[in-house]
Amino acid sequence: MYEYHIEGGFPVKGTVQASGNKNAALPCIAATLLTKEPVILRNIPDIEDTNVMLSILESLGIGIEKIEAHAWKIDAAQINSSTIPAQLSKKIRASILFAGPLIARTGKAIMLPPGGDVIGRRRLDTHFLALQDLGARVTTEGRFEFTTNKLVGADIFLDEASVTATENAIMASVLAEGHTDITNAASEPHIQDLCNMLNSMGAKITGVGSNILHIDGVKKLSGTDFTIGPDFMEIGSFIGLAATTRGSIEIKGVNPKDLRPLKISFGKLGIRWNIEGDSLFVSSDQEMKVNTDLGGMIPKIDDAPWPGFPPDLTSIMVVIATQVEGTVLVFEKMFESRMFFVDKLISMGARITLCDPHRAVVSGPSALHGEHLVSPDVRAGMAMVIAAMAAHGESKISNVYQIERGYENLVERLQALGAHIERVEVK
């Protein structure tokens, strides 16, 4: 086991390259099962979650080969099993993404309930309902088992705009017989990446980027060479890190269109950036003052399905708000346990009132001090890293496995920016 030892109070400075979008890489890895031809995926982040997904492919008899840094060649000409090993399924929530491709290729998928972050109830009903609409039979006693004689296109209305359920429905539909409409579909950039990858393989998907997708099933898909887009969650984390530590950084390899929802919410906290080409610049002279709503009212930062503010960044925004002059309400609507990490920030000196499981009122700026913290999930863990780097004194963060599931080579990259952080083995 490892923990981070962080000496706070040192502004970050320098250049960092944006990693590939974790949430795009995971479904794209699963989608390689949909073709018998080799697929090359580029810009895959080297993190625990992608490594688990690749291990699942290997367990199914799929050939995988790392051809260069962040690039993998995957050959699913033969699928030797339709059962995902229990120890791998429990490691990652994204293991559910193999359901759609496996039933499309083999007519069967078996797995245990997936693992993942503990941030509240994360229902899977939407997956089951969508796959049932396409002709799959689903049993959930002890394990999940999906079977079908034939998938047939359908008019699917998702009961919630679930990202992973949308992805499963897409992957099952592209090889289904006939036409499929998916309404109330999620439309995040990672779903757009999945659709664009599948279209490059010969799928017929229109409406990409909207909440209504139209899919004409095809008999087979070909191989492709596809590059994953940048991780706007990671980019938002580094923007928050720079602002909170009063630092200045350049983030290379960004997609400006992905950052439009972030720009509005960061602007409410007095944080701005400039973009030149595919580089984003955060300067050290941020206003760091809450911009009130008309009439001097307390502003609200709330998440929503895309193109709303992404829920995965609400934890980061809570930490930033502790260092900003003024009061703001952070309203996380999606998960009832995501906000429970704020008690650790309060122990560091933050002035936060947790109104209920979804809403926190943050008043700043607060002088934070070092503390021993435990990372509960990927994003709250990164939020704790940012808080520790802004605090006075030393902090220790345990359970860093959770952080490293989503952030590639984090310690080394932060050290290159001047952070005083060490990854220490503990027994």
Beta-strand content? 15-25%
Largest sheet, described in full?
Answer: 4 strands, mixed
What is the count of β-strands?
Answer: 23
Class by helix and strand content? Answer: alpha+beta
How much is the average pLDDT? 95
Shape: globular
Percentage of helical residues?
A: 25-40%
Radius of gyration: 22 Å
User: What is the multimeric organization of the chains shown?
Assistant: single chain
* Strand order in the sheet with the most strands: 21-22-1-23
Describe this structure in words.
With 427 residues, the chain is an alpha+beta fold. 30% of the residues lie in helices and 24% in strands. It has helices spanning 22-31, 48-59, 86-89, 99-106, 125-133, 163-173, 189-200, 232-244, 260-268, 314-321, 342-347, 378-390, 401-404, 410-416, and strands spanning 2-7, 13-17, 39-42, 63-68, 71-75, 108-111, 137-139, 144-147, 155-157, 179-183, 204-206, 212-216, 224-227, 248-252, 274-276, 279-282, 300-302, 326-331, 351-356, 359-364, 372-374, 394-398, 420-425. The strands form 6 sheets. It has a 4-stranded mixed sheet, with helices on one face. Strand 4 (63-68) and strand 5 form a beta hairpin. Helix 5 (125-133) packs parallel to helix 6 and helix 8 packs parallel to helix 12. The model is unreliable at 116-121 (pLDDT under 50).
